[in-house]
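Q: Given only this backbone (338 positions), what sequence would you predict?
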């Protein structure tokens, strides 16, 4: 598949300024002029429903005290990329280092960049997730699109296309540094189960829960941040480097027999991001949504069922990011988008 125009940031320059929701709520945009022309009139039923859903999500975000969707937050993304660094070949490590922006000393420092810069690249919002109708499965042709129906605009499409961009970094208007940072971030995103959650609740963003009956939040944030923060406090002395090292040790010891399977991709001519999304969609049903309703109190039972999944998905994300980069920058590599 040829690289679409959204590889390039420059193709969006000069377009009418657009106003987007601050997260994945709708994935739709309105020009400033259309916003200015809004009047208080009767809305069609479909638009009224969308407006009510948007208001509900905004209310949840206010109650939770945080933006609705940034997978793994900085801690999780840092760990994914830190793990990936340790599995890079010398050739791939040198190539990655050469592409880092001047402000970064290592890949892990760049892996939250795609969240930090969402306002700068508003069209990238739908590339952070791939929600499904709630059937615990992901199908590219059905599920990889944004709210406007534009195909390939989901996290799987993002991984495929920025992989292809790095394979053809000499293409005009493609910045390989931007491509690397998007790719690294999206591989982290796709391994957070609720980034392949249900469209009806925007991946758990509209499900209000009570974390240990002390914090009112939403289910998506629990997976992005709360589980990791509690694990760090309870088991890792609030030290992210310790948690990262423990996960890395598990990869080489407890999960050693699984690690080869994680990185395996049946062909060298495409990515296996579809498989990662299918895994997350299934885990969202089996673990993330299991037993959760509006207003649920999530405590030890939920935490101890979710934590092993969080740790393993971070490990898988790191191993698989390294495998993709090793194939991109390996000698005679033929990896391309599916």
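A: Predicted residues:
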């Amino acid at each position: 598949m040829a690289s679409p125009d959204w590889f390039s940031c420059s193709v969006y320059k000069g377009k009418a300024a657009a106003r987007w929701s601050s997260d994945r709520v709708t994935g739709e945009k309105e020009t400033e002029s259309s916003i200015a022309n809004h009047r208080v009139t009767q809305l069609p039923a479909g638009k009224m429903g969308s407006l009510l859903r948007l208001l509900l999500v905004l209310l949840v975000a206010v109650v939770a005290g945080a933006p609705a969707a940034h997978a793994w937050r900085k801690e999780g993304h840092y760990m994914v990329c830190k793990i990936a660094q340790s599995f890079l070949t010398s050739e791939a490590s040198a190539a990655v280092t050469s592409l880092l922006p001047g402000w970064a000393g290592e890949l892990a420092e760049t892996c939250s960049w795609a969240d930090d810069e969402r306002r700068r690249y508003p069209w990238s919002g739908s590339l952070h997730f791939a929600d499904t109708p709630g059937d615990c499965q992901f199908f590219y042709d059905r599920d990889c699109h944004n709210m406007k129906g534009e195909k390939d605009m989901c996290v799987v499409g993002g991984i495929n296309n920025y992989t292809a961009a790095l394979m053809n970094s000499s293409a005009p208007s493609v910045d390989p540094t931007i491509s690397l940072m998007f790719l690294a971030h999206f591989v982290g995103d796709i391994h957070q189960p609720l980034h392949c959650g249900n469209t009806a609740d925007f991946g758990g963003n509209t499900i209000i829960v009570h974390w240990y009956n002390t914090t009112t939040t939403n289910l998506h944030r629990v997976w992005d941040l709360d589980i990791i923060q509690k694990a760090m406090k309870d088991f890792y002395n609030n030290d992210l480097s310790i948690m990262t090292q423990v996960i890395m040790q598990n990869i080489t010891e407890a999960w050693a027999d699984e690690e080869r399977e994680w990185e395996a991709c049946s062909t060298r001519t495409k990515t296996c991001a579809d498989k990662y999304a299918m895994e997350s969609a299934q885990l969202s049903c089996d673990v993330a949504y299991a037993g959760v309703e509006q207003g649920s109190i999530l405590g030890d039972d939920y935490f101890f069922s979710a934590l092993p999944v969080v740790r393993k998905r971070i490990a898988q994300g790191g191993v698989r990011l390294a495998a993709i980069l090793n194939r991109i920058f390996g000698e005679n590599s033929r990896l391309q988008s599916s």
